[in-house]
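Lab notebook page, bench 4
Experiment: in silico fold of construct C2
Operator: M.H.
Input chain length: 613 residues
Purpose: comparison with the prior construct
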Amino acid sequence: MCIHKEVLTELDIYHRILRFTNYFIAMVNKGIIPLKFEVPFAGEVVFLTKGLRFNIEMLLFWGPGAPFKNNWHLSDEYKRLEKRQELAEELNKRILYVGVANLVLFPFVLLFQILYSFFYYAEVIKREPGSLGSRRWSHYGEVYLRHFNELDHEMTARLNRGYKAASQYMNIFSSPVMAVVARHVAFVCGAMFAVFAALSVYDEDVLQVEHVLTVMTILGAVLAACRVFIPDENLVFCPEMLLRKVLAEVHYLPDHWREKAHTSRVRQEFSQLFQYRVVHMLEELVSPVVTPLILIFRLRFKAQDIVDFYRNFTVEVVGVGDVCSFAQMDIRRHGSPTWQPDVLSEEDAQEDARRPNMTTSGGKTELSLLHFTMTNPKWRPPQESTAFINALRTQAQRDMNALTTLQEENALFSSLNSLSCGGLGAATTSMFRAPWMLGAPVQPGGVQQQSFWSPRGLRGGISHVEGSRHGPSGGILSTVQQSMVQSSVEGHIGMSSVTSGPVVDPVLAPSCLGPSSFLGPTLPQDLTAVDMSLSTLYLHELHQRHRHRATYTDAPPQPPSGPQGPPGGSFQPVPFQGRQPPGASGSASGSGGDAPSVSYQRAQEKTPLLAEP
């Protein structure tokens, strides 16, 4: 392909690498590719395997007769409306032929899949007997949780960071009956194994008895399997906090999971993203049988939608070729008003109602833009995208100024509280080491003598850092820190003296914002990941505020003081941006109805254990 541009931007390079991946992510996000099925007696089931994805990509991207002429150009026929019906019928037939071919060849593919799984998992089980009882991100989860324009190693690093929290969340759900049975079976197997081991130590001829080694191996495998069903006695049932921690790392979770993390429905749906390895193995084994059925009876009837998707969401970029328009991360075209930082006007809401099929679900466009901006700080986004990022920073700065009073629900406070309680507090709070907190000298104009974002703090660990080594530039962490430094210089933050330290607001105590948490001994290496986690939580909080504002539009306004709103820490429908932050005189001590105890009560209401089911 000839390059018609003197300079290729970071986005152009990502487009050329991830052209087909972005199309696939967008089609799954829009529901064009059917991956969810209603199974009798099992409910909704998600199915995506390597074999199914290979067939879909071969049909839609690079195989013979695919819509793409080559790796960068979509056939001109797919861009013409008058060819719509003809192309749909042709694609329908092609999918049918591939499905029939898979059905004819499935005995050979099934045999190969069985042999491959046997040799692969035999070595894994020998090395780690309990590995099949562990979990992994499913193929559907990797697609659902992936950003536009995100490379493989970036996605792997992000999902690996969320693995521990996801495992803890799934482990807190246990069946008491299965736990009792597993304990008894483990006791019997362990006792028999111990007897055989003791006899073999006393007389090694015991091992030469027929089937003794086989029995010991089986007992060890059963013992390892029983441990999966035995819960940890020290686990604390706090599903909301753990699910928020998962959200901070993986960035995407459905809206209806909020405040319902303790329910079996949410756990079941989350298991579709984070499944047992044995379930993954069984899906791969049945894939040769199920894949042709999906192609013949489900995918081929989506041919019309696929043709329309190519025509409506394909743009040509000079020097790059045809790419998916969603991958352009155009906020104006594909952004959702419910994920915007500012309150929408009625005209914007009406305009969005006229284009419901142009937006992505789950904030995919907005979060992908933030992630790409942070990992590529030298990239210059378009004007609309820049306006979105600036509006997000402005909103965060306003919430930061009102953080000490919290006369109404504060999205930044909720994000910081979720991030710190989720286990990232040490890394996050250390980023707020403003000069007034450390007692460091400040130069005129509020510039610290040695910047926290200096790349010297990252030397020795650059290979493990995601994004720029110069620190976050597209999120809200740097904005919040600058706001704190500016407030300290102007004297708007209450403090007795530089030597005695700042006056700690009791409202901020639950969110680990006290100086004792700020003075961590180490500096977080992956600044971009922490910045993205905070930005993700903050954007989700703003999204929830938009949803609650739309839900409670007709509700009477609530007074500004006292615990307000629905139970469980839900957001109030009172618009935030119409209110001016209080003056500095009331931020330190408070007056009248602005007592910090009101805000502290709201922090308690948002505790997951106190939330109503």
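Observations: Residues 343-347, 431-464, 492-525, 557-613 have pLDDT under 50 and may be disordered. The beta strands are 36-39, 43-46, 135-137, 274-276, 314-317, 321-324, 442-443, 447-448, 495-497, 501-502.
Next step: discuss at group meeting.
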